[in-house]
Amino acid sequence: MSGAVAERARPATRKIDFRYLDLPTRSPACYLEIGPPDAPALVFLHGFGGDLLTWHFCLVAFSSRFRVIALDLPGHGRSTMDVGRGTLAEMVAWIDQALAALGIETADFVGHSMGGKIAIALALAHPSRVRSLSLISPAGLGGPFDLALLHRFLDCTDQDTALDLSARLVGSDSPALIGSLAKSLVSSNGPAQRRAFETLLGEVAAIGEAISDTGVPWAQIACPIQIAWGEADTILPLPERHRLPPGAPFTPLPGVGHLPQIECPGVIVSLLRRFLP
Amino acid sequence: MIDLVIAELQRVLAAKDAAPAAIGADTVLLDGDLPIDSLDLATLVVALEEETGREPFKAGFRMFKTVGELAALFEAAAS
Fold first, then answer.
1. CATH of the domain at B25
2. Number of CB pairs, chain A paired with chain B, less than 8 A apart
3. What residues of chain B lie within 8 A of the CB of A265, using their CB?
4. Which ipTM score applies to this complex?
5. Of A10, A113, A226, A229, which has the fewest Cβ atoms less than 10 A away?
6. What is the pLDDT of residue A17?
7. For strand A41-45 and strand A107-112, is the pairing parallel, antiparallel, or unpaired?
8. Which 15-34 residues of chain A touch chain B by CB within 8 A?
9. Between A12, A34, A265, which is nearest B61 by CB?
10. Hey, is the C-beta of B62 within 8 angstroms of any chain A C-beta?
11. Would you call B60 and A270 a contact, using CB atoms and an 8 Å cutoff?
12. Which residues on adjacent β-strands are paired with residue A29?
């Protein structure tokens, strides 16, 4: 049977691989694309210190109905290490350029941590770009966050530091993830990335702190919003209720730390499937 | 179904100019002897979805390690 299948004529499945966009400023942008090119776009934005592969358990689940895009943000993964001054406005402008280069007018966005904050800021600056927001442990809502731990990413060059950091990233239900996470932390930390992280941490506005003095002006965002959050997250702990968008679905995730898309990808996929059009 | 998984996996290997491998139900997909990474695996899953019309990961990711386990997930998924 295998021979018959191999010989049958059908269009070759497009190899899923890293692709690169030339942008007017701070090029390139690295991304993954899965799914029909003419389907509605679904864009995934990772958090500080991560890259597009943090989503890899989630992407395929949407490949039949969406043009799924996962981007490496500036300073991360295989995209440019030039983060400019590292401001939120620059990140938003960069995403806007990347969407234009991809020919995407509007998309559903899934953002984790810093990527969630950037998605919120994109929805505020370019409302027509954002059809919906699914925010996973998003930064930018205000309240405490562990900036000291993020600084430790800079010096994560040995296995012991990486193991300790990894143990703090995930909840108590996911001890099996710590080893592989630590391996990726050590291997990803070159000098150019260190400079990018330093800039981003120096400009905390891009990563932590509230989007404004009063938190996020949710009333200015008209699109549907949902939020999921690990109850065991010690980096960006569960926010107080008043910081959340009024009336938006909120799903606390018991036993889950700061990486729900890796710790419980099945739950995240289910939440997205129920929420997305 | 297992034959289909093996055929698609050989396509993935051929697309990256890797030598055809001896593949069976117990062959480990990632971190085993095959020269494939997680993106190759995603390519394989999407190809199998297109070929079978089945989506075993529709309700969320399910863990699998071997060719046989992946075939079983597609076998069990309703078309």
1. 1.10.1200.10
2. 79
3. 60-61
4. 0.72
5. A10
6. 85
7. parallel
8. 15-18, 32, 34
9. A265
10. yes
11. yes
12. A21
Report which DSSP code applies to A244: S
Mean pLDDT over residues B39-53, rounded? 89
A1 burial via Cβ count (<10 Å: 0-12, 13-18, 19+): exposed
Number of alpha helices (DSSP H) and beta strands (DSSP E) in chain B:
3, 0
Q: Is A184's pLDDT higher than 90?
A: no
Q: In this structure, are residues A233 and A257 in contact, taking their beta carbons and an 8 Å threshold?
A: yes
Domain count along chain B: 1
Q: For residue range A229-260, what is the model confidence (pLDDT) as tens digits?
A: 999 999 999 999 999 999 999 999 999 999 99
B17 close contact with A: CB closer than 8 A: no
Q: Read off the pTM.
A: 0.88
Contact B8 A5 (CB under 8 A): yes
| Contact criterion met (CB < 8 Å) for B39 and A32 | yes
At A64 the pLDDT is 85
Task: Give the structural domain span for B32.
Answer: 2-76
Q: Which residue among B7, B39, B60 sits closest to A6, beta carbon to beta carbon?
A: B7
Q: Per the omega criterion (within 30 degrees of 0), is the bond before A28 cis?
A: yes
The answer to whether the CB atoms of B4 and A34 lie below 8 A apart is: no
Instruction: Answer yes or no: do A61 and B11 touch at CB < 8 A.
Output: no
pLDDT value for A5: 45
Buried b (16+ CB within 10 A) or exposed e, A125-155: eeeebbbbbbbbbbbbbbbebbeeebebbee
B45 exposure class (CB count in 10 Å sphere: 0-12, 13-18, 19+): buried
* Tokens matching residue A10: 């059908």
Task: State the Cα–Cα distance between residues A127 and A109, nearest whole angstrom.
Answer: 12
Inter-chain touch A34–B46, beta carbons under 8 Å:
yes
Q: Find the distance separating the first CA and the last CA of chain B, reported in whole Å.
A: 13
Between A5, A13, A60, which is nearest B57 by CB?
A60
